[in-house]
Structures are given as structure tokens and as C-alpha cells.
Amino acid sequence: MNALLTRRHVVAGLGLLSLGVLAGCDPGSGLSYKYGKDLSNEILGRKFKLRDAQGNEMMLGSFRGMMPMIFFGFTQCPAVCPTALARAAQIKKMMGPDGDRLQVVFITLDPERDTPAMLDAYVKAFDPSFIALSGTLEETAATAKEFKVFYEKIPTGSSYTLSHTATSFVFDTRGVLRLGLSPSLSAKQCTEDLLTVMSVC
Amino acid sequence: MKPVNRLLLLSLLGLSLHVSAQTQVDDAWVRATVAGQPTTGAFMHITSSTDSKLVEVKSAVAKTVQIHESTMKNDVMSMQAVPFVVLPAGKTVNIEPEGYHVMLIDLVAQVKDGDQVPLTLIVEDAKGVKESIEVNAQARALNSMPMDMDMHDHGAAH
User: Fold this and answer.
1) Rounded to two decimals, what is the model's pTM?
2) Per the CATH hierarchy, to which homologous superfamily does domain A38-200 belong?
3) What ipTM did this prediction achieve?
4) Which residues of chain A lie closer than 8 angstroms to B117, CB-CB?
5) N or C: less crowded end of chain A, CB within 10 Å?
């Protein structure tokens, strides 16, 4: 089976009723997703300001023209974070040429230990196009709150680990929040829904 | 004693130890790190012939080694240290990213893809007798996914 999904496939599956949506970039209309959660009625992630590895200030508007897929984690996470990054790399490949417009953004919830250089090397080990963002503790807390992302420190002896929301947030190319992808979804399931977003904007 | 005999004796000893071992460890691997990353995880399959518990893991590559459990509830991933992992007789227990896993904390050096990482597993049986198992875990690339994920699609993408 060919795992490469194309936009045409998904568009063909949308049906006649939704054709009106295809005509423009209407932020108000919710799309119907097979696997993910429609977040078009939520207002999340509009105001965050963080920095990339080079110290450039980055906000949602920095990704205009791209489809940002944003999620939160920390590099000392052995489980969900590398799995989510590896899944994102797979998704990008499965999307084929459309994958060039997917911008994967990893925001650290552990800026005390994730230095910008290490964080950058970490995400780029999965795909060189991936971007990692970090801020101060206050900026991190404000960003998480803005995304309604829960996180808390769990002490483990002399060290600590973090519990956190592992949802991926997808915005369209105009910066409108569209889709929430659960960590339990496969790369293929995510890809189908991402192509649905891309089919409108 | 001639060196050859000593070698023979050693290998026989090794053989007998192997035979009496009650716990089998398969497919042990460690996730490689990037420079400066102080922590990583070790994963494996453990099968014990009698009811026992994995109570401790040691490794020369990390100052602290802990056994953690990941849980996912409402898309919130949580992790916490656990005192042991139950190994029911004859049942293969997966030490994997999404469940129980071994955390190597404060690494003494970067773990690179292909490195052999020595681990010592301490397994305690129902009578409280402890067994020490030496395992060489292979370091796999940072972006490795567990085999049961949809890796099959990976190669077909292009």
C-alpha cells in the first residue's frame, strides 16, 4: 500500500456539501476530521512570544504561509516526546510535497534544563526543518496557559520529570487554529486530517 | 593451571550461570542522545521463569538510574518513579517508552547511535533471592520508534 496521501484523495472524500468551504479560507467554518478534534471555536496560542535557538523572537505570525503544528514537551522525556517528534517526521514524509508547508514547532516546558542549542540539536535529529522554541519560566507558563496546556513538575529523588498535555495544535496557513491531534493517533491518521486542513487553506 | 584450562573453566562457569538464570532479557536498547542532553531511556523485554520483581537497574553510563512509569490520561502524559516492576512467571514484560522504562539520569557522556550500553538488572524472586543480570543494550538513533508503531509505512512513503 502506498502510504503517501495526497490532497486530492482527501478532497475527493470530502463530499459535495463541503465544497463551499473549499472555495475560500473561511476561518469560521469548522471542518470535519476523521480522527482529530476540531478546535476552530477555540482561541489558543494567539499571543505567545518565545525564542528560537538563534535568539530570534518567534510568534504565531512568524509562521504565516506555513501550517504550524505546535506541541509541548521536554528533552528529558524518554517516552511521548521522541515518539511525537518521530511521528511528526513521518507525517511530513507521508504528506509528500505538501509536507513542505508543515512547520513542526516544539515548545519546551523545561527551559531550566533544555538549553536552546541542545533543544535545537534534539528536534533537528528528527527533521532538519523542525523548530524548537523556549522562553523564561514565566514566558513558558504564560504560553502553556494560552494553549490550555497542563504541566507540572514531578520530583523523582534528586531530579524531576514533567507531566504534560501531549496534544499537537495545528493552525492553517493564515494562523487560524484548526485541529488538535491526540498522541494516540498514528502518523497516517494525523496525515489524513492535516491534508483536510490544507485542502481549505 | 595452564591459561587454556583456566579459560575453559571460565567458559564452563559462564555456561552454568547462563543455564541457571531465571530471567531472560531480549531486545535491550537505549535511545541515543544529542550533546549536552543529560538523560535518556533504556527499553527491553524481560521474561522471568518464576514470579519476581525488577527492583533495581545500575549502569556505568549514568550517575542515577531509576525505574519510571509513563501513563497517558486525557492526552496528558505523566511520569513517575516506581520502586519495582512485577515480573509474573513466564510472562514477557515490556520495558518500553509508553509504560515502565528505565531512566538513565546524569549521563557521564553522550550516548551515540551504535554504542553498547552496559546495564545491570537486579531481579528479586518471591523468596527474596536477588539475581544480577548483565545486559548490553544497543544505542539506537534518537528518532527510533518502538517496533509496534506504524514504522511499516515509513519506507513506503517515497
Assistant:
1) 0.82
2) Glutaredoxin (3.40.30.10)
3) 0.78
4) none
5) N
